[in-house]
Design brief:
Elements lengths: L2 E2 L2 E6 L6 H9 L3 E4 L1 H9 L5 E2 H5 L14 H8 L4 H9 L7 E5 L3 H5 L6 H6 L4 H11 L5 E3 L5 H9 L3 E2 L1 H29 L13 E3 L11 E3 L6 E5 L5 H15 L7 E6 L2 E7 L3 H10 L8 E5 L5 H7 L4 E6 L4 H7 L6 E5 L7 E6 L2 E6 L11 E2 L7 H14 L7 E4 L4 E5 L5 H14 L8 E4 L7 H8 L4 E4 L6 H10 L3 E4 L8
Parallel strand pairs: 2-3, 2-5, 3-4, 5-6, 13-14, 14-15, 21-22, 22-23
Antiparallel strand pairs: 1-7, 8-9, 10-15, 11-12, 11-13, 16-17, 18-23, 19-20, 19-21
Length: 508
């Protein structure tokens, strides 16, 4: 249902960009209600505005801490389009409010300053503004909410198009309002939790605690400990879930391997890479990554190592995905991707990785160093007369990086800087190889000239025999089996190149 804006309540901290909006509202005959500094700002423009005190018949009290918290304000915002509600508004002489414009006290900006007292910080905790945002968002059926200065441009566009709103737009703004509200409250919670040193036993001094919708399954509760906003900025979409965060962690650590490569895109499903490719441009990288397993890509996680442009965004948006992560998005790409309100878009702000990894189990916690080992060609030992060509070596390096991020036992098949087949989570390395070959052939990939990487050694020569049968002539593995010589002997006899790294990459 389309509704015109007739009366608007404006109570904002930042007035930057507000003047033309207020002038346009006045030109369209929209009545304005305001408070304190915002009221004085509007009056200075020569535009009539009703002080909220005249609406409530009560002055601002307690140094301005209480101004809008009154039935004459919230009644007009929360009333529904029913005969009963309208009668109550008439009985108590409460005007109906169609639009609420708020910009909250700058809490995060305040705590970021040096030498700020706790009292100053406390005074920047907005109460009335948060209440106004939530009330207007709750009643989106008839009330438009503009919850921050970042949304002033949205209101300006609405006014430019006539000053009417439909249900879809009002609901979209309500979702945006709850996002603003939850982020604001989380920042307050994190600040005071940190300052009182009441974090979890992980003792992460800058961490916060975020309740999740649920854990791995709906019957499990879930929480996240840590300042996620330091590494990622969420640009769009619903709140991250437990599984989203687990997938995000896997995607981030995988793409760190290719951070400095040419444009690279990866697709992950249940933390395992199912598509990965490096190309000269980002669109080609996406197309090649998707081709690696377009079926598994449905509902997956996508990550890129460079800025996403509009063409790539359009191509990616043809499939359903859970998360889309990139160091940046071109404005046109972001505009298009944001049209799907639930899709999560994350801007990667920091490529640095934690040095340690924790996992709770039994009645305690285990800790290990992160597997941050990066391989150099000079570190590997060629154990066969035949050596890899330059093209094969590039693919071997590519494959050995991706195999670190697949669940053991695992095999990765790569050709032309593209993951063309992978087997993971198998109890037998032979099964992992068969799975990889089957997936590659099913998707029409020619494995002649492809390379193979294994996360751990070959206890028997069966894997190199199977690989040879489909045209794979270059292999990389850690080595260390008491029967290494059997695999080496087979490679020597069949003109295969084998490299040993001396580094195992189990992933349980």
């Amino acid at each position: 249902m389309t509704r015109p804006i007739r009366k608007a309540l404006i109570s904002v901290f930042s007035k930057e960009g507000l003047a033309p909006i207020v002038e346009d509202m006045h030109a369209k005959g929209i009545e304005l209600i305001s408070t304190g500094g915002t009221q004085r700002f509007i009056e200075a423009l020569g535009i009539p505005v009703q002080a909220v005190e005249t609406l409530t018949n009560y002055p601002a009290i307690l140094d301005g801490r209480v101004k809008t918290l009154h039935p004459h304000v919230f009644g007009g915002i929360l009333a529904r389009d029913t005969e009963d509600h309208q009668q109550q508004l008439d009985t108590y002489d409460i005007p109906s409010v169609d639009c609420v414009v708020v910009d909250l006290y700058p809490f995060e900006e305040t705590i970021a300053q040096d030498g700020v007292s706790e009292q100053d910080i406390v005074e920047k905790i907005d109460i009335g503004g948060i209440a106004l945002i939530r009330a207007a968002a709750k009643n989106f059926e008839r009330t438009l909410v503009i919850p921050s200065r970042a949304d002033y441009t949205t209101l300006a566009q609405i006014l430019k198009q006539g000053g009417e709103t439909d249900m879809e737009l009002r609901k979209s703004q309500a979702i945006r309002a709850f996002d603003v509200s939850s982020h604001y409250d989380s920042a307050i919670y994190r600040h005071f939790t940190e300052s009182m040193n009441q974090l979890s036993s992980f003792k992460a001094s800058t961490a916060g605690v975020q309740s999740l919708r649920y854990g791995e399954n709906p019957h499990q509760a879930g929480r996240f400990y840590g300042p996620l906003e330091e590494k990622f900025e969420q640009l769009n979409g619903k709140a991250l879930s437990y599984n989203n965060l687990v997938d995000l962690d896997a995607a981030f650590h995988l793409m760190r391997e290719y951070e400095k490569e040419k444009p690279t895109v990866a697709v992950l499903k249940h933390t395992n890479p199912c598509g990965l490719a490096t190309r000269n441009d980002i669109l080609s990288a996406w197309e090649a990554a998707l081709a690696g397993d377009p079926i598994s890509a449905f509902g997956g996680v996508i990550i890129a190592n460079c800025t996403l442009d509009a063409k790539t965004a359009l191509a990616i948006d043809e499939i359903f995905y859970e998360l889309l992560i990139a160091p940046d998005f071109e404005p046109a790409a972001l505009d298009h991707l944001k049209k799907k309100k639930k899709r999560v878009l994350l801007k990667l702000k920091d490529w640095s990785a934690e040095k340690r990894q924790f996992k709770s189990l039994l009645n305690g916690v285990i800790e290990q160093d992160m597997d941050l080992k990066t391989h150099q060609r000079a570190d590997w030992t060629c154990v066969t007369p035949r050596q890899a060509t330059d093209e094969e070596m590039a693919d071997l390096m590519f494959a050995n990086r991706v195999v670190k991020h697949l669940k053991s036992n695992t095999i990765a098949l790569v050709k032309d800087s593209q993951l063309v087949g992978m087997g993971c989570g198998q109890t037998s390395r032979v099964d992992a190889l068969h799975q990889a070959i089957h997936k590659a052939q099913k998707l029409g990939f020619d494995l002649d000239g492809a390379v193979m990487a294994s996360d751990a050694f070959f206890p028997f020569p069966d894997c190199v025999e199977i690989a040879d049968g489909v045209g794979i002539k270059a292999v990389v593995q850690p080595g260390g089996s008491i029967k290494d010589k059997d695999s080496i002997a087979y490679c020597e006899e069949h003109d295969q190149a084998m490299y040993m790294t001396g580094i195992r990459h189990f992933k349980h």
